From TrEMBL:
Pfam families: AraC_binding, HTH_18. SMART domains: HTH_ARAC (SM00342). Residues 171-268 form the HTH araC/xylS-type domain. The keyword Isomerase does not apply. GO terms for molecular function: DNA-binding transcription factor activity; sequence-specific DNA binding. It comes from the Bacteria. This is Transcriptional regulator, AraC family. PANTHER family: HTH-TYPE TRANSCRIPTIONAL ACTIVATOR RHAS-RELATED (PTHR46796), TRANSCRIPTIONAL REGULATORY PROTEIN (PTHR46796:SF2). Keywords: Activator, DNA-binding, Transcription, Transcription regulation. Signal peptide: none annotated.
């Protein structure tokens, strides 16, 4: 049984993640050129980063700055399970600045340990999404909200009120999504239309519609798919014309929203 899983998506080149299960591997002191956020799931680890030393148990999060010498190893003759998220420093710094962190580079240069249970659960939820079959746009939005939210830093922070999108700008964005629901519209492009940072826009759009931008667009695609299937269109043609990555992606998204496969739906309601 493989005791490690890796995740990476070419469409999200600023992030990668790793899961380790029941590992007894030990590491010499080393560095990463990324910002690294680790979490202990079970067992215990002896953490060393510069002058900082600690024994980490389940539910602990640790922030390791880029190029900082460190090592995390399990108790002697013991195994541990952990997660490790690696983020491009420039990308993470930009998201923090967008969310209101003026000293983002300084924040990311300081190692820290966080034992807050809620922060650990948010981290685990993010990693579950990254390792899932969800669309890369949904994963990008979740990463922006996670990094911008700063719960992983272990700092007390007043989360700013959810911003509102100006009515006229929201209308333009909604019109674009309705007209181009079969196209991949980058979050950055939509945020620029709203005159907001990516972090603020995702929060504002979700507050206004009940969904993140990608989920809203995916919902429009499925509604269009239902119309096409009722008209007797072929499944492969519907998936292709609506911009789904492949048939499996289409099947999964459709079933999540209609509670039956596209084929079963067409047989039930088609001509």
């Amino acid at each position: 049984m493989n005791d490690q899983c890796y995740w990476r998506d070419p469409q999200l080149p600023f992030v990668e993640s790793r899961l380790a299960f029941g590992s007894r591997a030990c590491y010499v002191p080393h560095t990463h050129d990324t910002l690294s956020i680790g979490a202990v799931d079970s067992g215990h680890s002896h953490y060393v980063c510069g002058d900082d030393r600690a024994r980490l148990g389940p539910g602990s999060l640790v922030l390791i700055p880029a190029t900082r010498v460190h090592a995390c190893n399990p108790d002697t003759d013991s195994a541990w399970s952990y997660q490790m998220l690696h983020l491009d420093v420039a990308w993470a710094s930009a998201v923090l600045r967008e969310s209101g962190t003026a000293n983002a580079d300084d924040v990311l240069a300081r190692p820290s340990i966080n034992r807050d249970r809620d922060a650990y659960q948010r981290y685990c939820a993010l990693n579950r999404l990254l390792f899932s079959n969800a669309d890369s746009a949904e994963k990008e939005a979740a990463l922006i909200l996670f990094v911008g939210g700063r719960s992983w830093l272990g700092e007390a922070r007043n989360v700013p009120p959810v911003p509102r999108v100006a009515v006229d700008r929201l209308r333009r964005i909604m019109d674009l999504l309705h007209d181009a629901y079969d196209e991949r519209l980058p979050i950055e492009q939509l945020a620029q239309m709203a005159g907001m940072s990516r972090y603020a826009f995702i929060r504002a759009f979700r507050a206004a519609t009940g969904m993140a931008p990608h989920a809203y667009q995916l919902d429009l695609r499925i509604n269009a798919a239902r119309r096409l299937l009722r008209d007797g269109c072929a499944l492969t043609a519907v998936a292709h014309d609506l911009g789904f990555a492949d048939q499996a992606h289409f099947q999964r998204a459709f079933k999540e929203r209609v509670a039956m496969t596209p084929g079963a739906y067409r047989r039930a309601v088609g001509p």
